[in-house]
Structure formats: C-alpha cells, structure tokens
Amino acid sequence: MNASKQLKTLVQTTFATLSAIVMISGLASKLYSAEPNAAAPPNPDSASSPTNSVASQAKTPDAKPAAVKKQLTGAELYSMHCNRCHPERYPTERTAAQWKTIMLHMQVRVNLPGDQARLILQFLQENSGR
Amino acid sequence: MNKQTMKTRRWMFGLVTAGCALWLAAPLQAPAEVTDDAFNALRDTVQKLSEQVQGLQQSNIIQQQTHEKDVEQIQQLQEKLAETQQIATNAEQKSIEAAQAQPPARQPIDEATVNHNFMILGDAEFQYAKAAGQHGAFVQADFAPIFLYRGGDKILFEAGFDTTLQNGQNDAGTHDSGSSTSFDLSFAQLDYVMNDYMTLCVGDILLPLGTYTERGAGWLNKMPDDPLAVDALIPGSGIGAELQGGIPLGDSGKLLNYQVYGVNGPSSMDGTGSAGQLDLGGNVGIQSSGMTANLHGHPTGGARIGLFMPFKPHYDLELGVSGQSGEWDDMGSHLYTAGVLDAALHLGPSFEAKGEYIMARYGSDDHGLVNQQGWFVQAAYKLAGLNLELPVINNLELVGRYDSLHGAYDSNNDAFDFNTRRCTAGFVYYITNTLLFEGDYEFLRSTDPSQVDQLILQLSYGF
C-alpha cells in the first residue's frame, strides 16, 4: 500500500517538475523571438551580395525617382546677391523688423524678383539678432 | 452494593474521622520566628525599591514632558515645511508664468504686427588728402544718411542726403574765408511694389545710367573718389517716375533686370542752347518763381536692360546697357543723349572687376554736336584669397582703377578739350565689415591743370 502511494507521489512530482520546465522554456523562447531580425534574407533575384540595408530591400524594380526641381534657398540667394556691392552684412546685425525694411530697399536697388527677396528675408529673419 | 465496597467505604470513613479528631486535638503550631536583622534588611529593601519606583516615576514624568515638547516641535517644523513647500510651489508657478509671458527668442516677428518701420542707413567718410603742389589737409568728405520708412509690405519711402563742409570766401571774393555747409538731397523716392516683377518708383529718383550711381557710391566704392566720367557726363538723379523689376530666367538665379523711366531731364542754365550751359542737376519741376513747370517742353525718357548670370555663389557676371534722350534747352531745339555700357564680374569671394563706358552727346547752338566719352575699369582682390591666414593680410584688399574722360568742358576757354587719364592704386583695410580704412594714390595725366596727382586716405563707415 505504501509503495504504491510513494510511486504515485513520485509520478506526480515528476510530472509537475517537467511541466514547470516546459512552461519556463516556452516563455523564454517567446521573449527572444521578439527582438528585430537584423539580417534580412537576401533577394534571390539580385546579383549583388546580401545586404543589411532595409532601404535597398524596400526599393521596387519599377520605381523611378521623381524629378526634383532644384530651387535656390534663401541662404544661397543671400550669398549670391548680398555681397555684390558691399561687404557681407551678418544677419545678427539687425532685428527681424529692420531686415524687412532693408530688404525692401535692396529689392528696389538690385531689381530682385519678389519671391527671391522673400526667401532672402526669411533667411535673414531666422538668423537675426533678436 | 457488595461487601468489598462496603468494607472499603467503612475503612475510608474511619480514616477521615480519625484525621479530624487528630486535627482538633492537635495544638496550634507556633509561627516561625523573624529576626530583627532580617526585618531591617527587608525594610531597607522595600525602602530602596520604593525610592527606585519614585525615581522611575519622576524620570517618566520628565521623559513625558520632553516627549510632549518634541511632539510640539515636530508639529511646528511640519507647519513650517508646509509653508516652505507652498512658497516653493508659488515661486515655481510664477516662474512658469513669467517664462510663458516672455517673448520667445529668435522668432520671426509676425509681419502683421510690424507694418511700419523707420530706419536710418547711410555712410560717412573722413579723409586726409595731399594733392601735388598743395598742402595736405583733413577733410570731412561726406556724411550721407539714408532715411527709410516702410509702410506695410509694399511701400517704401527712401531719401538720401549729402552733407559736405567746404571753405567759404571773403567778401571780396579773393580768398577762402570761413566755411559753408551744403546739405544736398541726393534722392527722394516713393517705391510701390506692384507685384513680384514690377515696382513703381516716383520722386527724385536715382537714374539707372549704368550701375555706379545706384550701387557704387559712397562707402560702396572701394576708392575714395568717383570715376571721372560719372560725375562729369551723366545726371545722377531726376524728378520723374520709373517702372523697374527683375524677371527670373530659369531656376539657376539668372535674372533679366529692366528699368524704364521718364524725368524732367537736363536743362540749360541760361535757357539758351549754348553748349557750356548744359545743366545736368536742375529742372526739378518747381521754378524759382514758384511756378510748377518744366523748363523745356518735353520730358526725357530712358531705360536700362541688364542680365545677371550667376554660375555659383560668388561667381557671377552682370552686363547692362542703358541710355536716355530728351530736350535740354528751353526751346527744345537740341537733344541730350547719354548711353552707358556696364559690366561687373565676380570670380570667387576674393576677386571682383567692374567697369562702365559712358557716352554723352548733345546738340548746341555754338559748338554743334558735342561728343564726350569716358570709361573706367576697376578691379579688387582680397588677400584672404591667398589663404595665408595672417591677421593683417586677411583683412586687406588691393584695388586698382584706370579711368579716362574725353571732351570735358573748359569754362575758361569755352571749349571741350579737357582730356584726362588717371591711374589709381589703392587698398582697403577692413577694420570691420562696415568700417573701412582706404588709401590710394592717383597718377593723373590731364590737359586740365586742376587735375594733379594726389594721395587720399579715407576712413569710411557704412551704417
């Protein structure tokens, strides 16, 4: 009687221990599988060597880059026009409101188109003294 | 009940009865005897214990009182702590409100909130000059403020003045005496930006004959004096109206500039068509009598077309052609015509070259068709371009100019035979980007005896 009872107890204990081990292993494997996969699988159609770049993988063969119309920035227009006649004046020398007045004066003197004058003004005001 | 049990009970009763009898019969035991020493010892012990109890009671009272004081002190400290926390909270709240109330730093001002602005720009020049055969002298060469008033986004009023100090003359007119201050309005115009490509300018406008007058005068010029032909052959300003603007050509920054104007035009100092009477600076519309009238019958028209071609920042070429034509004598019998070719080149931030060819031609009663021309070429190189990284050298710019004037008027002989060639070598030292120390030496070759070699040192400030 006792022997069977002991055997029963041993079986129960062993089963409980194995169950605990299985549960813990399962949880651990889930945790590790949540990290990003850094090594993307290579494109089988590409002749080049496998790369880790995500951007290159996202590019489709049929995509063509849209033609970008380059426009001169305020800083470029400033360097182009603002020391043709006088030494360079630094944006920090004047306040934003003063630059607006000065730029109107310069627009008349140099015959600048309005949109270019506004871009230069924006550059000056963003870097103005106060 | 069986016999055994009865027997047992009989024995027990008997024993109890015997015991009671014995107890009643036995004499009372006498109490144990206590000695005096033991009693005294016990009394002392009790007394000591009593004293100890009293001491403990007193100590307990003191500790109780101390505890009460501590509790009271703790309460006070807690109240103070609460007050301090409240003060800190209030201070923090106030600092947050103050920070929010302060205007943000370096934020562009909303243009809707600053529609009007008044400024004074301009320049001032102070010279020391030594002409050949003359004594050297200090000269308050020029103080030229420019007033700018902006009313909104599209309206600008601008006016420039020239203030010069010059010797006067004695009453006999035989010697310099005293001084006179001249205050001249060099230009005063109202500008209205009609759209991105057209601006209307009216008033005493700077004339776009070449670019020197608009963009090269004062501290903008790297030489202490003007090119010969500019002052002698063409007017600098005129009363009238102008349409001007810039039209972009593509996205590279290339511009086509245009300026079209109409002004009262040159006039005659005595009203006649005598060549020597040409007046380039008069005819402002209000006569000396107060009457509003042009001195001759028709206004003068002119225009400039320019092409600005940037290759990259600091590399650009500008070419322009300009001219004007109109009557100049009171009768309207003769035309005055002027034409200018202008060019400006920048090759990097260190090198620039500019020049103009100026032609003036006008009919006259006495000299027929008067032809005058002149030109100048000026180049400058900043030594910072050598990348020597030396403190004085980096701020130094070498400047050279060659200019000529043919057919200037000789009032003594009533002739147009003054021809002058000038070669100028100079420098500009940039104390700051707006404070310049300039110097040049001018080599003159001229049929005009007043044109002699001279040294000029100038301190020029642009503001």
What features would you describe in this structure?
Chain A has 130 residues and is mostly helical. In chain A, 56% of the residues lie in helices and 0% in strands. Chain A contains five helices and no strands. In chain A, α3 (74-81) packs across α5 and α4 (96-110) packs antiparallel against α5 (114-126). The radius of gyration of chain A is 36 Å and the shape is rod-shaped. Chain A starts with a helix and ends with a helix. Mean pLDDT of chain A is 69; it is low at 28-61. With 463 residues, chain B is α+β, with helices and mostly antiparallel strands. Chain B has one domain (114-173, 182-462): Porin, CATH 2.40.160.10. In chain B, 22% of the residues lie in helices and 47% in strands. Chain B contains five helices and 18 strands. Chain B has helices at 3-25, 36-101, 212-215, 228-233, 391-394, and strands at 116-131, 137-151, 155-169, 176-195, 198-206, 237-248, 255-263, 267-268, 278-279, 300-312, 315-327, 335-347, 351-363, 369-382, 396-410, 415-430, 435-446, 454-462. In chain B, β6 (237-248) and β7 form a beta hairpin.
What is shown here, in short?
The complex is a heterodimer of chains A (130) and B (463). Chain A is mostly helical and 130 residues long.
State the major sheet of chain B. 16 strands, antiparallel, barrel
Radius of gyration of chain A: 36 Å
Q: Beta fraction of the residues of chain B?
A: over 45%
* Mean pLDDT figure of chain A: 69
Helix and strand layout, with pairings?
The complex is a heterodimer of chains A (130) and B (463).
Chain A: H1 2-33, H2 54-58, H3 74-81, H4 96-110, H5 114-126
Helix pairs in contact in A: 3-5, 4-5
Chain B: H1 3-25, H2 36-101, E1 116-131, E2 137-151, E3 155-169, E4 176-195, E5 198-206, H3 212-215, H4 228-233, E6 237-248, E7 255-263, E8 267-268, E9 278-279, E10 300-312, E11 315-327, E12 335-347, E13 351-363, E14 369-382, H5 391-394, E15 396-410, E16 415-430, E17 435-446, E18 454-462
Antiparallel strand pairs in B: 1-2, 1-18, 2-3, 3-4, 4-5, 5-6, 6-7, 7-10, 8-9, 10-11, 11-12, 12-13, 13-14, 14-15, 15-16, 16-17, 17-18
